[in-house]
Specification:
Elements (H helix, E strand, L loop, with lengths): L7 E4 L7 E4 L4 E4 L2 E4 L3 E5 L4 E14 L6 E10 L2 E9 L8 E8 L11 E7 L9 E7 L3 E8 L4 E9 L9 E7 L3 E14 L6
Antiparallel strand pairs: 1-2, 2-5, 3-4, 4-15, 5-14, 6-11, 6-15, 7-8, 7-14, 8-9, 10-13, 11-12, 12-13
C-alpha cells in the first residue's frame, strides 16, 4: 500500500490534488519536475479512479545496470497490479537494446498484457539518452493506450493500446515508475482521475 511508504508531499504543476507522494530517498520532486535516484514509484496525490490520464516529458540520462531497467509513467492499482509505459534498457545478453513497452502486471504476474485484445501497435524508433520524449498513458472503461512522442521531431515513436477483453488492471492512481538503476528527468508532469474507485486490493 502507498500509505505504508515513507513519503513526502511535493507540489507539482497542474496535477490532480496538490502534488505527488514519493520516498524522499528515491525521488527529488519540485515545481513540475521530478528525478529518481533509486527504483520505485512516485504517486499523484488523491484517490484512484477508473478513468486516468498521466503525462510527462521524460529524458533518459543514464543506466549502467547490466540487467533489465525501465523508466516511465504508470497507473498503479497496487504493488502487484499496474500498467506502465516505459523506456526499456534490455540486459547485456540482448545487446542492451533501447526499446519501449506498454506492460501490465496483474496479481504478481508480468507481463500479461498480451492476454488482452491489442487495438493498436506501432514502434517507429528507439529511444536515445539525452533526448526528450512526451509520454501519455490513458485508461478508460474500454481499455488502456500509451503513446510516446519524440519532442524534437514531434512524431510518435511508440503507440500501443489494449482493450479490456479479459481480467485486467482497470483502475489506479497516476504514477511515475523506475526500475534498475535507470536515471531520468521527468518534466511537465500532469494527470487527471475520474470515476473514483477503490484500489485493486487493501
Amino acid at each position: 500500500m502507498r500509505e505504508l511508504l515513507a513519503v513526502v508531499l511535493c507540489t507539482v504543476g497542474m496535477s490532480v490534488g496538490a502534488g505527488w507522494l514519493a520516498d524522499p530517498l528515491a525521488w527529488n520532486i519540485g515545481g513540475d519536475a521530478a528525478s529518481c535516484r533509486q527504483s520505485g514509484f512516485a504517486f499523484a496525490e488523491g484517490g484512484p479512479g477508473c478513468e486516468v490520464v498521466v503525462r510527462a516529458r521524460v529524458t533518459p540520462t543514464s543506466c549502467t545496470n547490466a540487467s533489465w531497467s525501465t523508466a516511465g509513467v504508470a497507473i498503479y492499482g497496487d504493488a502487484k497490479t499496474f500498467w506502465h509505459l516505459a523506456f526499456v534498457k534490455q540486459p547485456q545478453e540482448l545487446k542492451s537494446k533501447h526499446v519501449f513497452e506498454l506492460g501490465m502486471m496483474l496479481e504478481g504476474e508480468w507481463p500479461v498484457q498480451h492476454r488482452l485484445a491489442c487495438r493498436e501497435s506501432r514502434t517507429l524508433g528507439r529511444w536515445e539518452f539525452g533526448r526528450a520524449y512526451d509520454f501519455t498513458l490513458r485508461m478508460d472503461a474500454q481499455g488502456v493506450r500509451g503513446e510516446i512522442v519524440d519532442v524534437k521531431t514531434g512524431k510518435p515513436v511508440f503507440v500501443n493500446a489494449y482493450a479490456f477483453t479479459a481480467k485486467a488492471a482497470d483502475r489506479g492512481v497516476p504514477a511515475l515508475h523506475v526500475t534498475g538503476d535507470f536515471k531520468a528527468d521527468f518534466r511537465s508532469l500532469s494527470c487527471s482521475v475520474a470515476r473514483p474507485s477503490a484500489l485493486m486490493s487493501a
